[in-house]
Amino acid sequence: MALTVLLICVGVFLGSGVWAVLGNRSSSTSFWVYSFSLAGSTLALCVAVVALIDTEAPTATLQLPIGLPWLGAHFRLDALSALFIVVVNLGSLTASLYGLGYGRHEQTPGRVLPFYPTFLAGMNLVVLADDAFTFLLAWEFMSLASWALVMAHHRIGANLKAGYIYLLMASFGTLTLLLAFGLLAGADGGYDFAAMRAATPSAGLAAAVLAMALIGAGSKAGLVPLHVWLPLAHPAAPSHVSALMSGVMTKVAVYGFVRIVFDLLGPPDWWWGGAVLVLGGVSAVMGVLYALMQHDLKRLLAYHTVENIGIIFIGLGLALCFQANEMQLAAALALTAALFHVFNHSVFKSLLFFGAGAVLGATGERDMERLGGLIHRMPLTAIAFLVGSIAISALPPFNGFVSEWLTFQAILLSPKLPQWLLKLLVPAVGAMLALSAALAAGCFVKAFGASFLGRARSEAAQNAEETDAASLTAMFLLVLVCLLAGILPGYFMDALAPVTRQLLGAQLPLQQQMQWLTIVPIATGRSSYNGLLLFAMIAVAGFLAVYVIHRWASHAVRRSAIWDCGFPDDSPAAQYSAGSFAQPIRRVYGAVVFRAREEVDMPAPGDCRPAKFHVHIRDLIWDALYAPLESVVGFVADWLSKVQFWTIRAYLTLVFSTLVGLLVVLSIWH
Amino acid sequence: MDHLSLDVAHMFAGGLVLVSFMLLYQDRMFGLLNIFALHAVVVSLSVAWQAYIQFAPHLYITAAIALVVKAIIIPVALHRIIVRLGIHRTIETVGGIGLTMLAGIGLVALSIMVMLPITAEAGTLTREDLAFSLAVILLGLLMMISRRNAISQIIGFMSIENGLILAATAAKGMPLVVEISVAFSILVALTVIGIFLFRIRERFDTVDVYELERFRGGHP
Amino acid sequence: MALIYDLFVQVAQLLLVLALAPLLTGYIRKIKANLLRRQGPPLLQPYRDLLKLIRKEVVLAENASWIFRVAPYLVFATTLIAASLVPTFATGLVFSSAADLIAIVALLGSARFILALAGLDVGTSFGGIGSSREMMIASLAEPAMLMIVFTLSLLAGSTQLSSVSAFMQGPDVGLRVSLGMALVALIMVAVAENARIPVDNPATHLELTMIHEAMILEYSGRHLAVIEAAASLKLLLYFSLIACLFAPWGIATAGQGVVAMAIGVASYIAKLAAGGLLLAVFETGTAKMRVFRVSDFLGAALMLGLLAALLLFVSRSV
To answer: Is the sign of the CA dihedral C78, C79, C80, C82 positive or negative?
Structure first.
């Protein structure tokens, strides 16, 4: 029943896409497309939430006679898919709501509107698919629709490069996933997931499948070193699509990894978790360091997605380590932490991208060095962006802190692991996680401070206007979710329990029954956290402080010029910019990780030209991995281009020799 | 073996690893000598404690030799060599201090990972001390390869020797004769190295290994 | 009835830390002055300073936003709640299960975030200097803090402050070099987080030698009073943390009678006095470091924490 409703919603999305193509000329197409998407997402969200909470319901499967003749199309709604349908549709609900307002600014709606609902349809289908063909078809659908959206503003040169690299990486990812499914299906070719679950691959084969899944899903999610397309493609798309790509599509990739490794593959080896942990830890630290070096707001957010995907994969790696050692409860804790972070990240990353889109729409600028002072011009957007920043920096009382706290608690269980390499690796990854959390806070002080605080650095920033009501509604809806998930995390953790029970066979103790809504993941004496109580105490303490001070303090307030230690400078260029804020961190970390060098070009005395300050940063991963690959491909392509200029006789000789060779092979083989 | 003895032995062995890290952190010559003297003091205390809990009186002599020779005589001799040769007092490193320290932590983790599984049948004390002595040896080697200065390479070599002493006492049974000969051979090696340093310094005006490479036909 | 008594004890702890914080700051200043052979300000001077500031007029920059006006209260509230959750004279208080060590450190991180934003709000270069350096120091101090938490939780099997404190008072602790290293690392992190010498000079108002002072340069009047109170609360919090984790003798457990509580209060005040003396001696004996040497300093704290955890893996009980 629920599954049929979800498939109908997918049909609604596809129908809206077709409508957008047909009704291209009329101005209300944008309104109708986004409204239909909104309605479809809301319905899907409600159905999925009911399916997730209702723990007694059996998993629903459906088989449609479309697709390959001997396979059909299998669909399945179990706890894992229900969770990811919730994540996808919460994101698409708010994005459609945002699009109702934002879409009015779109210059070329014909290039965005048909692909937006098809993108939503693709994402939902990936999560519902129950056989390899449907999965890969929906995955490609999702990639192509998002590629079309990235290329929507194709007149900007940078977007062309972004689209090209995105298409390459997406095709590469699909290829590796195809290989993974091929290996799982085995020689018999059972491509539906039920057959794959029943089969037990050998250890080497399983390791190969893990590697393929990690590369394929990891490249779509944004794991280092396969992340290079993310900061190019995500900012290029329109803002609500960026929010969907960063906040939701990366989660669909995580779903792909979880489905293959936790569901289809069978019991893991101990070193699988270690490999995933290392990749996650490196992604977390590198992602946030990259983000700190950026001064384009949307690129900063895109690099930050890399960091959060790293955190999710740290949780998943821990779950694999614990599961391999049959510590099911610890694995359930790690998996809960990872899945909670999936939900949290989709919420606050969408919120931040909506804020960035609002800023872009109001000022036309994405470069933080040309923003500033927007808190006075766009007060509501500023509040929403502030909440998103605090949440993503993993600070209480918002939701980011809860998932990080749960991950740390899982890390603290690592001494019970028997393998020495894991015992020593997990604390190191824990230190990397703490480092990335602290750097993330610095990154978002920079992002919020440079864009919204201080004085305006350009005309556009001085004349910005607040965004429209639809966008603000979408943002504040997400603010509310951030707050609720932070102060009532027990309910969310209980909603995740069916997923861990399905995948690992164990679940955390029921959190709703804990005293005063505290969450106690392991045991009462060991660790506990009460978001509601902390929030209440801080609120009460704050109000009491305000009351006491205002009762007995002087009320005199005088507005005056900036103090600045007695040397105020009128020029807004004298304040700290985004680049200068990152300078201490660039000095400490960037010298090693990016070979960051600062170069000052001072004019000679008497020369009146301005001094110039350059920061040179090298992307070492691009230099080490992609640039050589690019040159090799270029070399081979140049060498092969000679084939273009052969005579007809040469081509015929080629065909003839290939045919003869194949016949020889055939004869030998028999 | 009761908990207090184990804890004190663990404290001394762990303290030796910590002092090896402090050796890695130093960038001034006299500070390096003082920390090396501390290294030798910690080793002698550790050997003395082992003598006490193993009821092996000959180890007290080992401790005394380590204390007198390594903590007093050698640092003073090196101090005089440095002053006589007029060697400049800062130590150049290869790679930053941060990276060297991270590599050091990795080496400690590596030695734990290697030693603990292999020595599964031995007693707790022996296993701990073997793991820590391997760590001290590796840290001494790290010091030797990440410093450009010949004096600091000598110090690194000596700290390797201290690690070996720790391992030998933990493995319960090192005859005194061997220790005396080892100590004297160290002394001989030091004298030889000192003479060489004098001659190198006289010929080339420097003991920086990097500079010396040029004369060997190394990098330009 | 028991609940009322427990609530009363918890609120009493909150009021105690609030009352003692300026006294601790005054005490440390007095000792530093005496070490420099000066008389120094009277012990109660910080209270007088706060009252003076409250009665003064607030001068706001023209472009200061609501964040600038709200930040002092938010910082104060967060720091006060964090300080009241660290056991001072009694463990196991009613609200102590709301936040463990990781959550308390994160609460201080929230306060720092808001303060850094307030520094950037007016749009001056000094605010920018303070905020950017503060976030750099935080990025180095937090991993060190996590390794200390890891070491403690390896030993005590918990991250709850009450459980760790109870473990440290118990017989299983033994003499462990890892605890010594964790203590030194915690002291280094505490010095960095509270902007004391050698990381930052709390007494100076020169532009290039300050980090915390630079962020609050534009504040005046009652806002400045609230921020100064929050800063002294943060110092008291770290003292209480070190005392309850590494010197827990004399702490009462919740539910014990008034006598045990009184002994707890007396031992707490004695620990504060001893700690303040040591801090004053340390600050007087050391010079402030260049900002970019702070990364070496905190890197050493991180190394100590990592080493402490590694050593614990090798020792007898893990």
So the answer is: positive
Q: Which residues contact B72 (CB under 8 A, 6 or more apart)?
A: B37
Give the orientation angle of helix A489-504 with respect to helix A328-363, to 10 degrees: 120
Query: Are A71 and A145 found together in one domain?
Result: yes
Q: Say if residue C318's pLDDT is above 50.
A: no
Residue A415 domain-assigned? yes
Say yes or no: A614 and A642 in one domain: no
The reply to whether residue A592 touches residue B99, judged by beta carbons under 8 angstroms, is yes
pLDDT tens digits, B68-97: 888 888 888 888 877 877 766 677 777 677
Confidence (pLDDT) at A669: 82
Best A563, A567, A570 residue to mutate vs chain C (most C CBs within 10 Å): A563
- Compute the distance between CA of residue A263 and CA of residue A80 in angstroms, rounded to an integer: 10
- Give the closest residue to B146 by CA, choosing from B17, B25, B35: B25
Last residue of a domain, one of A510, A538, A567: A510
Over range A465-469, report the average pLDDT: 87
Q: Per the domain annotation, does A516 fall within a domain? A: no
State the total domains in chain A.
3
> Which of A618, A639, A661 is the last residue before a domain boundary?
A618
Clarify whether residues A351 and A426 are in a common domain: yes
Q: How far is A616 from chain B (nearest CA, A)?
A: 20
- Residue C61 sits at φ, ψ, to 5 deg, of -65, 155
Between CA A70 and CA A62 the distance in angstroms is 16
Shortest CA gap A541–chain C (Å)? 5
C91-124 residue pLDDT tens = 888 788 888 899 999 999 999 999 999 999 988 8
Express each pLDDT in A134-167 by its tens digit. Answer: 999 999 999 999 999 999 888 887 888 899 999 9
CB pair distance less than 8 Å for C116 and A445: yes
% of chain A surpassing 90 pLDDT:
47
pLDDT at C132: 92
Query: Which pairs count as long-range contacts for C261-270, CB under 8 Å and 24+ apart, including other chains?
Result: C261/C9, C261/C89, C261/C90, C264/C88, C264/C89, C264/C90, C265/C16, C265/C88, C265/C89, C267/C89, C268/C88, C268/C89, C268/C240, C268/C243, C269/C20
Statement to judge: residues A590 and A505 lie in one domain: no
A506 and A590, same structural domain?
Answer: no
Task: With beta carbons less than 8 A apart as the criterion, state whether A279 and A313 touch.
Answer: yes
Q: Are residues A349 and A239 in the same domain?
A: yes
| Burial per residue of C265-277, b for 16 or more beta-carbon CB atoms within 10 angstroms, e otherwise | bebbbebbeebbe
* pTM attached to this predicted model: 0.90
One domain, residues A611 and A640? no
Verify that A16 and A39 share a domain, yes or no.
Answer: yes
- As a whole number of angstroms, the distance between CA B162 and CA B175 comes to 16
The residue segments making up the domain with residue A606 are 584-618
Distance CA C224, CA C233 (A): 14
At A587-640, the pLDDT tens digits run: 888 888 888 888 889 999 988 898 898 888 888 888 888 889 989 999 999 988
Check residues A516 and A282 and name the one with the higher pLDDT: A282
Which ipTM did the prediction report? 0.94
CA C87 → CA C7, C82, C109, distances in Å? 14, 10, 19
Minimal Cα distance from C318: which residue of B?
A: B124
Structure tokens at A435: 């480092």
How far is C184 from C181, CA to CA, in rounded Å?
Answer: 5
Mean pLDDT calculated for residue range A528-548: 91
The CA distances from residue A119 to A112, A130, A301, A355, in Å, are 10, 19, 21, 22
Q: Under an 8 A CB cutoff, do A424 and B98 touch?
A: no
In chain B, the residue whose alpha carbon lies closest to the alpha carbon of C307 is B105
Average pLDDT, chain A: 89
Q: Which of C177, C299, C310 sits opposite B108 (nearest CB)?
A: C310
**Farthest CA pair distance, chain A:** 101
